[in-house]
## 1
Amino acid sequence: MRVVIAEDSVLLREGLGGLLARFGFDVVAAVGDADALVAAVERTRPGLVVTDVRMPPGFTDEGLRAAIALRAADPDLAVVALSQYVQHGYTAELLASGQGRAIGYLLKDRVVDVAEFVGTLRRVAAGATVVDAEVVRQLMLRHRDPLERLSSREREVLALVAEGHSNAAIARILSLTGAGVVKHIGSVLSKLDLPVSDDTNRRVLAVLTYLRGRP
């Protein structure tokens, strides 16, 4: 089985390469970023890719996006995302690629048995879909109404933000301190998993989420 490994940590990359080689895999390339991953796959034509999710230069979702592009070009290419995190943005798209076959998403900290891990890679390479239970749980939570995560007070604050009230006005209406309003708004932005940007833009995104969730 020809394998390409993509992992930005040199120690993890070399360690994973050595491990797979001991179990009979042919590691044809081991690279440290998404661009190098795409180039290595085009050059070596492996049967399996094992990729980290967050890699240079942005350390966000480069590995996932590269995997999706590779699967679009070759739906039969088996891919296992091996990460410390559940990256929500593109995970569902990756799992749906190639008609959901030959795909895996594992969390590094939850891999506790080497033989089981290697067996999982072989199963994915043979066409199976293997997704860590924690990944499934987080994806299910993600697809629930995000407003369910807010407390009743946070909903009240968000409703007033949606109506265009300033922080000072919200404080007067709800009999809160200014610091209290700021704390509630910060909690709302965090619970809604809004992308980090300037606070003004995040408030707009929070309002849009609120409006979409209203009956």
## 2
Amino acid sequence: MKLRKTGIIGLFWLFMLALMLPTGHLPLSLVNRILVTDLTLLLIILVINHTIIHAPLKFKSPFTFWHQLWVSAVPVIYVLLILMGVSTVGPLPNHQVIQAIAPAICIAAYEEIFFRGIVLGGLLRIWGARHLLTITFVSSLLFSLSHLLNLTHQSLLLTGFQATSALAIGLLFAAVYLRTDSLWWPIAGHFLNDFLILAASGSLSSPGPIHYGIQVAVSGSELVIALITTAWLLRPEERFDIQQKFHLA
């Protein structure tokens, strides 16, 4: 029964990937393509979750704001570092900043509700708290592998770097969700991450030449920090509270 339910979530993930493939060829601007695609996908996953998966989507945390901020410290620092990097680009065009807001919101809402809310939440309900770290990694890995769709328009190396960063971010956001009991924190972090990239470059892909040695070091460091932080946030003494909040076996 557990394997069957896990297979359903796996098929759900593949189904969503299949839906995303043709959207890259829509005759729309990048902003409009993201809006149409992600809003449509968000509606689809909410309907499927309501009718088939039944993963609980948690938004209202029982903890104080400051406790949630403390738990989210590493992702917050990560976003601040990105902001510092963007600031070196110089003043950003107002129209580019404004245009980045709506697509960043749509991306963050769809991807966090799907990967952290439904995939992570659904697998936890199937396998229980004993497999918490494994499920956290698997859900984050699926999030990372989804970025391989970018191979349709960019190089393997650049896509690999993005997938590695996505795995690191996925681990951090998953741990924060489990500890805060609220999807608002991963959604906010994801929004700021994508908003800063879109506002700075007008694209979620790197706009210029890449120094591969530096990129390997950065991506590797991201992943190591994410693994250590996730292990600390989900350490054994915290798992009982997570088990109770998410009603896990």
